[in-house]
Structure formats: structure tokens, C-alpha cells
Write a structure and sequence with these properties.
Elements (H helix, E strand, L loop, with lengths): L10 H14 L19 E6 L13 H17 L3 E3 L3 E2 L4 H10 L3 H18 L10 E2 L3 H16 L3 E4 L2 E5 L4 E3 L4 E2 L2 E2 L6 E5 L2 E4 L5 H6 L8 H11 L1 E11 L6 E6 L10 E4 L6 H4 L5 H12 L3 H5 L7 E9 L11 E7 L10 E4 L5 H10 L14 H8 L27 H15 L2 E7 L4 E2 L12 E4 L2 E4 L29 H4 E3 L5 E4 L7 H4 L2 H4 L12 H7 L4 E4 L7 H14 L12 E3 L3 E7 L5 E2 L4 E4 L2 E4 L7 E5 L11 H8 L1 H10 L7 E2 L5 H15 L21 H20 L2 H17 L6 H11 L4 H10 L23 E8 L2 E9 L4 H11 L1 H4 L4 E7 L3 E6 L1
Parallel strand pairs: 1-2, 1-24, 3-4, 14-16, 24-25, 26-31, 32-35
Antiparallel strand pairs: 5-11, 6-7, 6-10, 8-9, 11-19, 12-13, 12-15, 12-18, 14-17, 15-16, 20-21, 20-23, 22-23, 26-27, 26-30, 28-29, 32-33, 34-35
Helix pairs in contact: 1-25, 19-20, 20-21, 21-23, 22-23, 22-24, 24-25
Length: 872
């Protein structure tokens, strides 16, 4: 006997149906100002994901977390009546794509195209409401034409220049890396060793915008932790620049920046970075060999190694002396020996410091190590007599705001008794009058290294001519890459484009031989302005029409990882400000609200050494997991997903088993969006069962009973109790989406489904339609199917969000706790807002047995919550 067919919840049928419908009907196509169907009366909402670079591995389940969050908010905002811009594109140029192309010996244009197709298929399979007509790729000539054009504007304004300064060179990757791409002397991508090397580079003057980049953080709805990361990376410091003459030279002068000019009387030696340009000029013949040997040793160290506070201090005397401007020429206190030491970095400040061992721990340790003088300059009065005396004598370091002692004076300046702030002002004023220094604000932020010695990147629109640099005319943009079979780095600090000889050879504007720039732009070039192109992606006359950018910008919600805090986010803010200053865009900040989602992690196993054992090398042994080869019991841990660990979860597998709606719901239900949490496959079926129960509220088990339960085929009055439960759910979900508390919104919907299941025969079609509207942002496929079956009008994606009757949020009857002597002894039900005498009567009845034989001496009523009887 054949088992009858059932109308089960079948995402494999429902989801492709609605995905094809949305694409075919362009349901999420967003008109721009001036388009025929644009409604200017609606408020705008621009939701943006940090667009992905299309790797060969495709998505893992961590990627859709942020994408699902923005999709929920975008769908909710449409239902709220907003014009919603929600686009997607591809960060397709750069190292990741090129490294994969090298590994597979396939041209990056081909691998990128294949990877984009995989990503697009995966994202469309998850039901995200992107406007696919706005899809862009940074590797598309129609896009990078405008990247090149923007770079030209920066160059013409003096914000792009060539430099031969020391830069981070990675031999393995064959390219220069920006400061934010190097961590502890190793490349962020691939963890390869890097070294400082002088190379010709294009550099962008982001430092011109340092003050504005700090100040404008105040206007942004970003987490304070992320703002702090940017402030610390920019590193604003107030102090003074001071000039020290070098004895016995023709005008050589060492300029230092210090945040403590007040301690100048305590300077007892000077330290230059080994790379400082003055080192070669001032080093004496007797010290030259030692200095050059030290320079060679320092060059092999990373910045982290050089600046580690715990390391032993090292340095070499140059043989030269500088003069402290506070002291007369014949005063021996003003004669400062000049050393080089690797703890001074040439790119920080001026690459030189005045060493004040009495007020700086590193200088104190260095002076102790090399027997250099430590003049006391402070007169602390902390109450610790022994320590105060040691500091005053220069036998201990003091970095606190202690008053200065009487030794801090010369013929025209005295700091005796002053604190830090007053002493700073006085010293700076003296230096200015003497022409030996000035107040100065400096930044730790360095200009942006904008060249890569690689193939797969935007070519610079630059010709090198006999007269210098010439920019390629706008009419000849884009400058496209030549096709190269061999695009691998050549093992030297030179781009493989040098081998494309026919492409490199060009003519300048006067018809003379010239050479194209062979460096390419970094991957961050295209991602520094893509949010602008999304506003007007098909404009072939300008990078973005002013009407479009004025309407859509700034981005109202930007979601992505906090790891981009000092790279992409800083660069995008810089480009936006530069374009604003040129009159190209109306905003000074690109992203008004930024939300960093947590990482979705996975379980893995580590051995006794703390090393993670790949999944393929493990096996189950009863209730534990052991090393397959050694039998060692392994410790379960939670860590990031990695192909190396074998713990990556492919969303295609989850969708194949449970459907996209289940994946979306589970990722949002795992916990607060900002938290990192482990993927647990055992929890996924529970979310799937919620969707099955939601489905069963409307659809009977067998098709012969029709597409809907009989009681839903005609309108009927709304059940009062279910109506109250529904309005509370609407109110909860509405507020939780606003707060991006998606896990609690889903929990509220689960509670409603439980209530509705218990009273299914009283559930009305109107109530189920409104529930489908609540479910739509989270699980759009099943919600659309329910909406259609229930006879909902129009596209669910644009159905107005259900309204809340606030009267239904208040209980007619409430339950209060009843205490006797502060202990709960019972509960009583009373009408909400009942008078105190009514509440007390009900409370007495609830705890009559506990009051028997006792005298009530006091009655305490907390309205709506409890009654407490004080008895004796």
C-alpha cells in the first residue's frame, strides 16, 4: 500500500521557487532619484556589507552572519516604507586572488570570474534581498577606470607623491606591504617574514587628514572600542620640536619631537635611529665600523623586536656631541653624546630623541646599561621619603607629574616648583623666543604606501617621461593590464609588469618615448570608494552622480569585521574627505553606523603541546576524541574555522540538508550578533523544527485537505488571547530588530508559535498573515510561501509592517507576589491598576494561613509587583 503524499515543509522546493521569482521580477531593484518609479517622499536607508574578496573556497558559514543581519534590517526597513539600497559586489583585485592564481597556475582574471560565480550562486541561494542590478567588481575596467580617475585627483591636489623611504618588503609575496598589513614584522596574509627596504613607491598623504580623521569620529555611531583603535593608530601627540646643534659640523642640527619639553633640563644624551640620515654625516672615523655593524644588525630586526620594553637595551656611540639649547656653550651639562639605538624608529616622530633618563624608563635603562649620566630634575613630595630622595638624586625614574626641582633653571628660565603643564608652556615659549623650537602636534600615522610590485591590481594612470611624471589623460582611461601568461613575481623588488615590454613602452603627450608605471595599486584601492559606486553603478560619465550620492550617503548601516579598523575603514574615510574637499561628494564621512559582528567559530581538538590536530588525524574513542596515530586523548576547544583544521562548515551543505531559512535563523539565534560563538550542528535541527511548526499552522498534512487548514479559508474574528500574544510579538520583534537583537526576536516568534499551536483552531487568517510579515525578514522563503497561500496581497517584501495596538500590550489581570516578613508566601491575581484596598484584600486571602494568629503592623504595596505584610 502506497503511503499518502504529505504537504511537508520542503525548503528544497520552496526556496528555489522564490529565489527565481525575486530575480526574474527584480523585486529588490532600487530606483535612484530621477528614475520614473522613485518616490522622494519615502525616507532612505542604505545598508551595506563589507563586500567579500571572492576566494576559491567560497563561503563558509561565518560569512553569511553579517549578510543575514543587514538583510533582516533591509527587509524590515522596506516594510517600514523606506527606499532601501542594499547592494553586493566583489573586492576582486589584490593579493588573495593573485596568490590563488599562482598556486593553480591559472590567470587571475579566469580564477576571479569563476570564484565570483560561486559566491554569487551561494549568496542568491541564501535569499538575500540584494539589488543585483547594482553588482560591481573592482577588477572590472568599467569600475577601475574611476579608481584611476580618483587617484589622478589625489595626485593633482598633492595628495599622491613618489617616495624612496624604507618600506615593508615581503620576499615570499614579492611585494611591498602597508603598515597595517604587517603584524610583528610578518605579513598579515600568509605570515611571511618582512623586512624594511628603501624602494620607489607611490604614497598617499593620509597624514594631511589626521586631525579630521580623529575629530570626526565624534559624529559617528560606532563602538567606542573601534573609535579608540583608530585614535590610537593615528596617534595624536602634542609637544614641541626642538633643535640641537651638532658640535664640530657645518651646520648639522638634530631635530627631535617630544611630548615632554618640560624635561629638557634633564636631557643627558641623544639617540638616533640607526636609519637616520644624519648618522653617516656625524659619525667619527673611530666609531664608523662599530656604527655600521650595528646598523646592519638592526636592519634584520622587526619593529616589535626593536621596541620590546623587556629586551636588553643596545646601542653604539657615534662619537658626536650635540648641544642642549638651554645651556650656555661653555656649560658641560649641555654637551650631549649622540648614540644610535634600535629602540628608536626612523618613521616615528623625527627618528631622533632627547634622552631624559630621570623621566623615561627606556632612557633610564639605557643610561644604566652604558654608564651615562642621569641628572635629577624632579622634587617629588609623595610622602615616601626614600623614593622621593632617589628620584631627586637621579637614582630612580619618575614618569609622573611631579614638581620640578631648583636645578631646572638657566639665566632666563626657571621651572622650579612648577608642574608638568605649566612647565611645558614655559619651555615652549622660551624655545620660540630663542628660535630653537616650536609647539608641535604630531601623529603616529604614516602616509599610505600605495604601490604593489604585483600583477593583479589597478595600473597607475602614469607615464614616466624625460620631463618627469605625466598623467594619462581621462579620455584614455581605463589603463588596462596586459594579458600575461607569466605573472608571477620575479623574486626581486620589481613588478612582473616589467616583462610586458610592449605594454610598458608608450608615448607621452608630445609623442616621445615614455614608460608606463609598472607598480600596481593595492587591494584597498577599489574598496576605498565602492560604497559610492553602488549609488550610481552604471554611470559612464562620472564615478557617481552628485544627486545619487547626496541622496544615499552616508551609509546608514555598515556591517563587517573589526579587523578592518585601521585599514579599510581609515582609508575609506580619507578618500571620502578628499572627494568632499574637491566638491565631488556632499558628505565628509561614508559610514554613519558601523556594527562589528562576532566570529562564528567551530570546535577543534588540540594535543598536550597546545597544537591543533586536523580533523582528518582524529578519531572517536567512546566518549572522547583521540589522535588517530598516537591514541593521545585530545582536548576539545573552540577556535576559528580553517581548512587546515578541517572544521570549516560549508553553507551549501547546511542549505542542502535544512534549507537557507534554517541557516539564516540559526546564525541569528546562536547569540548576540556582536559575540563570537561556536557553530554547533546539534542545535540546527531545533531551529528547523520551529519553521516546520510555523508551516503546520497554515498547511494541513495531506494535500486532499487543501493548501490551507479549513478554518483559514475564510475570514473569521481574531481570537482575543492570540491577538494579544501577536501584538506583543510584533512589539518585541520590532524593537529587537531596531537594536539588532535578532536572537531575542526569534525567541519571541517561537513563543508565539507555541501559543498558536495550542490554540490552532482559533487562529485567524489575519493573524497568520501578520505573523508571516514578522517572519519575512528572518526566513523570507517560507514567509513568502505562507503569504501566498494565505491570500496576502502583493509582494510580501513590500507589505507594510503590522501595527501594534498598545492597549493590547497591557494585561487586564496581573499576578503579584505576596510576602510575609519579606519572604514570598503566595501569589494573588488582581485587575491591572486596582486600588490598594482591593490589592490588599486579595493579598490577605492568598496568605491567610500565614497571617493567622499574628498582628499585621505594616502593609507595604509595590504597585503591580508585590505586597509585604510586616507582622508580630
Amino acid at each position: 500500500m502506497t503511503e499518502p503524499k504529505k504537504q511537508t515543509y520542503d525548503p528544497a522546493t520552496i526556496e528555489p521557487k522564490w529565489q527565481q521569482f525575486w530575480l526574474a521580477n527584480k523585486v529588490f531593484k532600487t530606483p535612484n532619484p530621477g528614475d520614473p518609479c522613485f518616490d522622494p517622499k519615502r525616507p532612505k536607508f542604505y545598508a551595506l556589507d563589507m563586500f567579500p574578496y571572492p576566494s576559491a573556497a567560497g563561503l563558509h558559514v561565518g560569512h553569511p552572519e553579517g549578510y543575514t543581519a543587514t538583510d533582516i534590517v533591509s527587509r524590515w526597513k522596506r516594510a517600514k516604507g523606506c527606499n532601501v539600497l542594499h547592494p553586493m559586489g566583489w573586492d576582486a583585485f589584490g593579493l588573495p586572488a593573485e596568490q590563488y592564481a599562482i598556486q593553480t597556475n591559472t590567470h587571475p582574471a579566469k580564477t576571479t570570474e569563476q570564484n565570483v560565480a560561486t559566491f554569487r550562486r551561494q549568496l542568491q541561494r541564501l535569499g538575500f534581498s540584494y539589488d543585483w542590478d547594482r553588482e560591481i567588481s573592482t577588477a572590472d575596467p568599467k569600475y577601475f577606470k574611476w579608481t584611476q580617475w580618483i587617484w589622478k585627483q589625489l595626485h593633482q591636489r598633492g595628495l599622491a607623491y613618489e617616495s624612496n623611504a624604507p618600506v615593508w618588503w615581503c620576499e615570499e609575496l614579492g611585494t611591498v606591504l602597508a603598515n597595517d598589513e604587517v603584524i610583528n614584522g610578518r605579513s598579515e596574509r600568509g605570515d611571511h617574514p618582512c623586512e624594511r627596504r628603501p624602494l620607489r613607491q607611490w604614497v598617499l598623504k593620509i597624514t594631511d587628514y589626521a586631525e579630521r580623521l580623529i575629530a570626526d569620529l565624534e559624529r559617528l555611531d560606532w563602538s567606542e572600542s573601534l573609535k579608540t583603535m583608530q585614535r590610537e593608530w593615528i596617534g595624536r601627540s602634542e609637544g614641541a620640536e626642538i633643535d640641537f646643534d651638532v658640535e664640530g659640523t657645518a651646520g648639522a642640527r638634530i631635530r627631535v619631537f617630544t611630548t615632554r619639553p618640560d624635561t629638557l633640563f634633564g636631557a643627558s644624551f641623544m639617540v638616533l635611529s640607526p636609519e637616520h640620515p644624519l648618522v653617516a654625516q656625524i659619525t667619527t672615523p673611530a666609531q664608523r665600523a662599530a656604527v655600521e655593524a650595528y646598523q646592519k644588525t638592526a636592519a634584520a630586526k622587526s619593529e616589535l623586536e626593536r621596541t620590546d620594553l623587556a629586551k636588553d637595551k643596545s646601542g653604539v656611540f657615534t662619537g658626536a656631541y650635540a648641544r642642549n639649547p638651554l645651556f650656555a656653550a661653555d656649560d658641560p651639562r649641555g654637551r650631549l653624546p649622540v648614540w644610535i639605538a634600535d629602540y628608536v624608529i626612523v618613521t616615528y616622530g623625527t627618528g631622533a630623541i632627547m634622552a631624559v633618563p630621570a623621566g623615561d624608563e627606556r632612557d633610564f635603562a639605557f643610561a644604566r646599561a652604558y654608564g651615562l649620566p642621569i641628572p635629577g630634575i624632579f622634587a617629588p613630595q609623595t610622602g615616601d621619603a626614600a623614593r622621593d630622595a632617589a628620584i631627586a638624586a637621579g637614582e630612580a625614574c619618575c614618569s609622573d607629574d611631579a614638581p620640578f626641582g631648583p636645578q631646572n633653571q638657566n639665566a632666563t628660565l626657571s621651572l622650579a616648583g612648577l608642574g608638568m603643564a605649566a612647565a611645558k608652556r614655559k619651555v615652549i615659549d622660551w624655545l620660540v623666543v630663542q628660535g630653537r623650537g616650536q609647539a608641535k602636534v604630531t601623529y603616529k600615522l604614516r602616509d599610505w604606501l600605495f604601490s604593489r610590485q604585483r600583477y593583479w591590481g589597478e595600473p597607475f594612470p602614469v607615464l614616466h617621461t624625460q620631463d618627469g611624471v605625466e598623467l594619462v589623460p581621462d579620455a584614455q582611461l581605463p589603463v588596462e593590464l596586459p594579458y600575461m601568461d607569466d605573472f608571477q613575481p620575479g623574486g626581486v623588488p620589481e613588478s612582473p609588469l616589467i616583462r610586458a615590454t610592449e605594454w610598458v613602452a608608450a608615448k607621452d603627450g608630445k609623442g616621445r618615448p615614455a614608460q608606463r608605471e609598472i607598480n600596481t595599486m593595492p587591494g584597498a584601492a577599489g574598496s576605498s570608494w565602492y560604497f559610492l559606486r553602488f549609488c550610481d553603478p552604471h554611470n559612464d560619465k562620472e564615478f557617481c552622480g552628485k544627486a545619487a550620492s547626496d541622496y544615499w550617503l552616508p551609509v546608514d548601516l555598515y556591517v563587517g569585521g573589526a579587523e578592518h579598523a585601521v585599514g579599510h575603514l581609515l582609508y575609506s574615510r580619507f578618500w571620502t574627505k578628499a572627494l568632499h574637499d574637491q566638491g565631488c561628494v556632499g558628505v565628509v564621512e561614508p559610514f554613519q553606523k558601523l556594527y562589528n559582528q562576532g566570529m562564528i567559530q567551530a570546535f577543534a581538538y588540540e594535543d598536550a603541546r597546545g597544537a591543533i590536530v586536523p580533523k582528518k588525524d582524529t578519531r572517536e574513542d567512546g566518549d572522547k576524541v583521540v589522535h588517530a596515530a598516537t591514541g593521545e586523548t585530545l582536548k576539545p576547544i573552540v577556535t576559528k574555522m580553517s581548512k587546515r583544521y578541517g572544521n570549516v562548515v560549508n553553507p551549501d551543505d547546511v542549505v542542502g540538508e535544512y534549507g537557507a531559512d534554517t541557516l539564516r535563523l540559526y546564525e541569528m539565534y546562536m547569540g548576540p550578533l556582536a559575540d563570537s560563538k561556536p557553530w554547533n550542528p546539534k542545535d540546527v535541527p531545533g531551529v528547523h523544527r520551529f519553521l516546520q511548526r510555523s508551516w503546520r499552522l497554515a498547511v494541513p498534512e495531506f494535500p486532499e485537505h487543501g493548501p490551507l487548514h479549513a478554518h483559514l479559508r475564510q475570514d473569521r474574528p481574531d481570537d482575543p488571547e492570540l491577538e494579544k500574544a501577536l501584538h506583543r510579538t510584533i512589539h518585541k520583534v520590532d524593537g529587537d530588530i531596531e537594536r539588532m537583537a535578532f536572537n531575542t526576536a526569534i525567541a519571541a516568534m517561537m513563543i508565539f508559535v507555541n501559543d498558536a499551536t495550542k490554540a490552532m483552531d482559533r487562529l485567524s487568517r489575519s493573524q497568520l498573515l501578520r505573523f508571516a510579515q514578522l517572519l519575512q525578514p528572518f526566513a523570507p522563503h517560507v514567509a513568502e510561501e505562507l503569504w501566498q497561500r494565505l491570500g496576502g496581497q502583493g509582494w510580501l517584501a513590500y507589505a507594510p509592517w503590522p501595527q501594534v495596538d498598545k492597549r493590547l500590550l497591557v494585561d487586564d489581570e496581573i499576578e503579584i507576589a505576596v510576602q510575609v516578613l519579606g519572604k514570598v508566601r503566595g501569589h494573588a491575581k488582581v485587575q491591572n491598576g486596582a486600588a490598594n484596598d482591593v490589592v490588599l484584600a486579595a493579598a490577605r486571602a492568598a496568605v491567610a494561613a500565614h497571617l493567622e494568629g499574628k498582628t499585621v503592623v505594616k502593609e507595604i504595596v509595590v504597585p503591580g509587583k508585590l505586597v509585604n505584610f510586616v507582622v508580630k
